[in-house]
Design goal:
This protein is of the alpha+beta class. The protein folds into 4 domains: about 5-105; about 110-280 and about 655-675, no CATH class; about 280-450, no CATH class; about 460-645, no CATH class. It has 27 helices and 20 strands. A 6-stranded mixed sheet has the order 11-12-13-14-16-15, sandwiched between helices. The chain has a 4-stranded mixed sheet with strand order 6-7-20-19. Strands 1-17-18 form a 3-stranded antiparallel sheet. A hairpin with a 5-residue loop joins strand 19 (about 645-650) and strand 20. The chain is globular, with a radius of gyration of 27 Å. It starts with a helix and ends in a 21-residue tail after the last helix. The model is unreliable at about 675-695 (pLDDT under 50).
């Protein structure tokens, strides 16, 4: 793209941002259709394309005039149908949001004062979480009984349980759904009722809440779930391609609707499409991270060395550098060190005023305080002075206490009540769900909170690169990092690895996963494309300087097969893109350290293989061909993708309007059945403690 083309593109973008019709029309006359299409997609099918609130009339007039102008119709007619469809989708999406927002004041609970509206939502969620806790406790009880009886026990990927008044559910998914819905509801109320002060929610003083209030709160909760689902469906439709229409358009039968439902919802809206590879791989990456967290928590919880460093009941509270106040604290710090590839125990770098060590201690202390005060209800309430003293008692530095309270208090910059569990009220009290902190995956929570604060952990990059190089050397493969210049342009290689007659060019990446957030998934996909271009450049650089390879390994580059790999520190793998293999450290290190994929469990507190599912390599050590076969599509992804589901869910927008949107999930029951096999029958000797982790 030459300078003139770049200037025209810039001018058109600015015209879109300012709704400057004359400038936009003038640019259209000079630009190529492909360039115009790129700008239209960037501005119409990107984050922020639709407006939930505000005046849309100026924007609508701009697009209507532009898309029907002679400049578009005469010169760029080939892209008009696509652009018009995106525009229509945006308007339909905004109409759906309007329906939900207009429905909120009509709900029975909305007729009550704001304090009852607010706290009835919290009490309702508290009751629902208690039901989930009760059901999951029974399932974990079964696991613990097996361990107590010295029966080898499979490592769970997801905890499934039967609800008293429902079907079999994934505990983590339901728990997260309830917490997420409440988080969104509180954000909606805080905006509508003007409860935000300096970016933090200030709730009304808690009133007496009756069962009738809790029952009536259900309608708001239902609309909150619809709002969340609508955001997801809208973003996926715009970002990844999709259509909005009726049942006939979507080729979906609504015959299963009762006559009453068909009368009540005469024209349901369908968001319909096929999930893209981008979405499937993103979903599987997040699911694999969750599984890794669950299984590693169980393994770490049984480490004798860890238990020795955990504060015993009645003992003095250890300083930050001297031990742990709970197993959660030790496990979380160990997992952080594993993921970030540096020692977070001793690291003094501050992220928004706190070291990672202080962040973790803060969350863990709040969890311990909640557990100590919890009775029949999931909710616990503290005075501000109690919270401050609790942090003080558990050895959090005095200067950190205001900072940790600020970050853990729910507000505008909080993703949800996992990240910021404290609900501050105008009477100066703090309320939170004790069970949320007791059962959450704290590693994921911390990453999520830091992400919402737009925090970058720069140190993790170099740490990960060093780990990759040292690991390959340990496994017996020549591995070097290298930097050189071509015409003053820098070419830096994280890891060059020689395996037989194959040279691996490994570029290490350290991006956090999306957390199943659509916008983050979209941005992650864009970063993949950018990284592919970067790695192609490194390939060209090495081919221009083959002498570098010969100096490092004593081999001619022409005699070697060059294999470029994008290696992620977190659990993101997929099929190759434009000849670039994409893997992650968990999958790659698994390949080089174990020759098989096996079901495994706990026995005597140790990981034991139960049944071989797949053989990765057959010789004394893997060949380059076996590695490439594995990287093309790791067996872990093959197995999971086979059991992905894309299911329609009905979401009400009003008493007379409803939409259907599809959501990705895993057929947990059948996937677990597919992996089942006979357990080893050897008895263990020691009791092993199972711990549960949600989210």
């Amino acid at each position: 793209m030459n300078t003139a083309q770049k200037e025209l593109r810039k001018r058109l973008k600015e015209a879109f941002e300012k709704f400057d019709l004359p400038t936009a029309l003038a640019a259209l006359e000079e630009m190529e259709t492909e360039e115009v299409a790129d700008v239209l997609i960037e501005k119409m099918a990107q984050p922020g394309a639709y407006q939930i609130r505000g005046n849309r009339s100026k924007r609508n007039k701009f697009y209507d005039t532009l898309l029907n102008s002679s400049a578009m119709l005469d010169k760029h007619d080939s892209i008009c149908p696509c652009a018009n469809e995106i525009n229509r989708n945006i308007i339909r999406i905004e109409g759906c949001f309007d329906d939900i927002r207009d429905s909120l004041p009509k709900c029975d609970i909305s007729q009550y004062p704001v304090d009852i509206q607010f706290w009835s939502q919290i009490e309702r969620t508290s009751c629902e979480l208690a039901e989930i806790d009760s059901a999951s406790d029974k399932e974990w009880g079964k696991i613990e009984e097996k361990l107590k009886a010295r029966i080898p026990t499979a490592m769970p990927e997801a905890l499934m349980t039967q609800l008293e008044h429902g079907g079999i559910v994934n505990v983590d998914a339901v728990y997260s759904g309830l917490v997420g819905a409440l988080s969104l509801t509180l954000k909606m109320l805080s905006f509508e009722k003007k409860l935000l002060h300096d970016g933090k929610l200030v709730a009304p003083t808690m009133p007496a809440i009756t069962e009738d209030h809790i029952y009536k709160a259900g309608s708001i909760q239902l609309y909150a779930l619809s709002w969340n689902a609508l955001e997801d469906a809208a973003n996926r439709t715009l970002f990844f391609g999709g259509k909005i229409g009726n049942a006939q358009d979507a080729k979906i039968s609504i015959d299963h609707f009762s006559v009453e439902e068909q009368v009540k919802f005469p024209d349901p809206i369908f968001f319909y499409r096929k999930p893209t590879d981008i979405e499937a791989y993103d979903f599987m990456a997040n699911r694999r991270l969750h599984t890794w967290g669950v299984q590693n928590t169980l393994l770490m919880a049984n480490m004798t060395a860890l238990r020795k460093t955990v504060m015993k009941e009645g003992a003095a509270v250890p300083e930050l550098t001297a031990g742990f106040v709970s197993e959660d604290e030790g496990i979380t710090l160990m997992k952080l060190s594993e993921i970030l590839a540096y020692d977070v125990f001793k690291d003094q770098e501050r992220f928004h005023g706190l070291t990672l060590r202080e962040w973790v201690r803060g969350y863990c202390v709040l969890g311990l305080m909640g557990t100590a005060k919890q009775d029949d209800s999931c909710l616990v309430t503290f005075e501000k002075s109690e919270i401050e003293q609790g942090f003080r008692d558990y050895k959090l530095p005095e200067e950190c206490i205001p900072t940790i309270i600020h970050h853990l208090t729910f507000g505008q910059d909080s993703r949800d009540l996992y990240d910021s569990p404290l609900i501050y009220s105008e009477d100066g009290k703090y309320t939170f769900f004790a069970n949320v902190l007791k059962t959450c995956n704290l590693t994921n929570v911390l990453f999520s909170r830091l992400s919402s604060l737009t925090t970058q952990i720069d140190k993790k990059g170099k740490g990960f690169e060093d780990r990759v190089v040292s690991s390959f050397v340990k496994w017996g493969y020549p591995c070097k990092s290298k930097k050189f210049y071509i015409d003053d342009a820098e070419y830096e290689y994280d890891a060059l690895v020689l395996i037989d007659d194959t040279l691996l060019l490994i570029e290490c990446k350290n991006n956090l996963l999306s957390g199943n957030n659509t916008v983050q998934a979209f941005r992650y996909a864009k970063s993949i494309c950018d990284n592919v271009g970067q790695i192609k450049r490194l390939v060209r650089g090495l081919r221009e300087r083959p002498d570098v390879v010969e100096s490092l390994f004593g081999r001619k580059l022409d005699d070697l097969t060059l294999v470029p790999i994008m290696l992620n520190s977190m659990t993101y793998s997929r099929e190759p893109v434009e000849g670039i293999y994409i893997s992650d450290w968990s999958a790659l290190s698994k390949f080089f350290t174990e020759s098989t994929i096996s079901r495994f469990g706990l026995q005597n507190g140790k990981k034991i293989n139960k049944q071989t599912i797949h053989t990765l390599w057959k010789g004394k050590r893997p060949t380059a061909k076996e590695l490439l076969d594995y990287l093309t599509m790791p067996i872990q992804l093959k197995m999971m993708r086979k059991h992905l589901r894309f299911t329609y869910f009905p979401r009400p927008m009003s008493e007379s309007a409803i939409f259907f949107a599809q959501e990705l999930s895993v057929d947990e029951e059948n996937m677990l059945k597919a992996r089942e096999g006979p357990f080893a029958k050897k008895a263990g000797k020691k009791k092993t403690k199972a711990r549960r982790k949600k989210r």
